[in-house]
Specification:
With about 400 residues, the chain is an alpha+beta fold. It is about 35% helix and about 20% strand. It has 2 domains: about 140 residues, no CATH class; about 230 residues, Jelly Rolls (Sandwich), CATH 2.60.120.650. The chain binds 2-oxoglutaric acid. 2-oxoglutaric acid binds next to strand 9, strand 13 and strand 14.
C-alpha cells in the first residue's frame, strides 16, 4: 500500500482523497436517483456506501463497480458528436475515474491509478472538485519510480538548418529588450509582430524543461498526442500516450512519424508544471481570461498557415521554432470547409507555392526564428505557419484586446 511506505503527512493526504470520494459518490448517486432512477444511481449508491464503510475488503467491489460505470458512461460519451454530449456524463466520468484511482492507489497500483486520473482529466469534465483529480495525479506521480535510462541524459539542444521558403518579400521581426508595460502597450499600436528578449529568463521552466526532466518528473502522465505531419494531412490522427513513451518514441529515437502535443491546456492537467512559469504582466491588458496552451514535440512539427481569434504572446521555452507570418489583411486563400476556415490552402514551404498562388508574390512574409527565452507578439488574426527546428517546448498565451 502506498501509504505504508510514505510519511504520516502523505497518509493524511491519501485519507482525505478517500473521504472526498465518498462525498462525491453520494452526491452523484443522489443526482442520478432523481435524474434517471436507473442503474447508475443504484451502483453509485452502493459505491458511496462501500467507501463510507472504509473497509479494505470492499475495495475490490468498489473497483468492479467503477469499471462497470466507466464502461457504460464511455459508450454514452462516445456516441454522436462530442459537443452534443451532456456535460453531466463527462462530470460523472471524471468523478468515477477519481474514485477508481484512489482505490487503486490504496492497493499500490500507482501507474494504473495515475492513468485513471488522466483518463478522467482528458475525457471527463470538472465537477466542482477543485482540482482533486489533478492533485491526486500530481501526488501519485511523485511516488512512482521511472526507470532512469541513460537515454534520458540531457544533451544541449541544436537548431536544425532548414532552408527558408522561396517567397518574394521577407521581413525580419524587430526585437526589443524587456519592455515596460507602458512601452509594451505602445508597441501594440501598429499591430505588427515583434520579439521580446529577457522577459521569461527567470521562469524555472527555462532551466528545468527538457526531455529528460519531463520523463523523470511527469513521464507516467498520459496526454493527447497528434500523429501526422500536420492537422490538414489525410493521415492525421490522435492518440493518448504516456509522456515518457511520447518522448522516447518520437524525440529520443528517430521515427518516421511526427507526433505533437499541440495546443493543449497542459497546466490544467499537470498542474505542477504551472509552478515552473509565472504570469506575464503584459497579459494585464487582456479583456478576458488568458488561454494558456502548451506545444511540445520533436523537430519537424508543422502547424500549417492559419490565424486565430486571439492576440498571442508566444513564449519559446526549450528549443527552436520558425514562424512565417502574413498580415491579417492579406488574402491567404482560406479553405472553404467551415472547420478549416481559419486555415490557408497555401503550403508556404512548397516550392510550388508561388506558381499555385501567384498573388503570394505581392505579400510580405514576416519571418522569426525563435530560440529559448524569446517571446513573440503575434497580433490578432495574423496568419502564421510554424515549424519546429529542434525538439521544442513552447507556451502560448492567448488574450483579447
Ligand atoms: O507552435 C506551433 O506549432 C503553433 C503555434 C500557434 O499556432 C499558436 O500559438 O497560435
Amino acid at each position: 500500500m502506498i501509504v505504508n511506505s510514505l510519511s504520516y503527512e502523505n497518509f493524511h493526504v491519501a485519507t482525505n482523497f478517500y473521504s472526498t470520494c465518498s462525498v462525491i459518490a453520494e452526491e452523484f448517486s443522489r443526482l442520478y436517483c432523481s435524474k434517471e432512477k436507473d442503474l447508475y444511481g443504484g451502483i453509485l449508491g452502493r459505491t458511496s456506501h462501500l467507501i463510507k464503510d472504509y473497509d479494505v475488503n470492499v475495495r475490490k467491489q468498489v473497483l468492479q463497480d467503477c469499471d462497470i460505470l466507466l464502461h457504460l458512461i464511455w459508450e454514452t460519451i462516445n456516441i454522436g458528436h462530442w459537443k452534443d454530449v451532456d456535460v453531466f456524463w463527462r462530470q460523472l466520468y471524471r468523478s468515477i475515474c477519481f474514485i477508481k484511482s484512489v482505490n487503486l492507489s490504496w492497493d499500490d497500483r500507482i501507474a494504473e491509478a495515475i492513468l485513471s486520473c488522466d483518463m478522467g482529466l482528458i475525457m471527463g469534465a470538472p465537477f466542482g472538485e477543485e482540482l482533486f483529480v489533478q492533485e491526486l495525479a500530481d501526488f501519485l506521480s511523485q511516488h512512482v519510480s521511472i526507470d532512469s535510462l541513460c537515454e534520458t541524459e540531457h544533451e544541449p539542444v541544436r537548431k536544425a538548418e532548414f532552408p527558408l521558403p522561396f517567397l518574394s518579400n521577407h521581413k525580419e521581426i524587430p526585437q526589443v529588450n524587456a519592455p515596460s508595460l507602458e512601452k509594451f502597450i505602445e508597441l501594440l499600436n501598429p499591430s505588427t509582430p515583434f520579439i521580446m528578449k529577457n522577459v521569461i529568463d527567470h521562469w524555472p521552466a527555462m532551466k528545468k524543461w527538457n526531455p529528460s526532466y519531463l520523463i523523470q518528473n511527469h513521464g507516467e502522465r498520459t496526454v493527447p498526442i497528434e500523429i501526422g505531419s500536420s492537422y490538414t494531412s489525410e493521415q492525421w490522427s490522435q492518440k493518448l500516450l504516456k509522456l515518457k513513451d511520447f518522448i522516447r518514441t518520437y524525440m529520443l529515437t528517430s521515427s518516421n512519424e511526427v507526433a505533437y502535443l499541440a495546443q493543449y491546456e497542459l497546466f490544467n492537467h499537470i498542474t505542477r508544471l504551472k509552478e515552473d512559469i509565472t504570469p506575464l504582466d503584459y497579459c494585464a491588458v487582456s479583456e478576458s481570461d488568458v488561454v494558456t496552451n502548451c506545444w511540445f514535440g520533436p523537430e519537424g512539427t508543422v502547424s500549417p498557415l492559419h490565424h486565430d481569434h486571439y492576440q498571442n504572446l508566444f513564449c519559446q521555452v526549450y528549443g527552436y521554432k520558425r514562424f512565417i507570418m502574413f498580415d491579417s489583411h492579406d488574402n491567404m486563400h482560406p479553405h472553404q470547409h467551415h472547420l478549416l476556415k481559419n486555415t490557408s490552402q497555401i503550403d508556404v514551404e512548397s516550392p510550388n507555392a508561388l506558381r499555385d498562388f501567384p498573388d503570394l508574390a505581392d505579400k510580405t512574409a514576416w519571418i522569426a526564428d525563435l530560440g529559448p527565452g524569446d517571446v513573440l507578439y503575434l497580433p490578432l488574426h495574423w496568419w502564421h505557419h510554424v515549424r519546429s527546428l529542434s525538439v521544442s517546448f513552447s507556451v502560448s498565451l492567448w488574450w483579447k484586446k
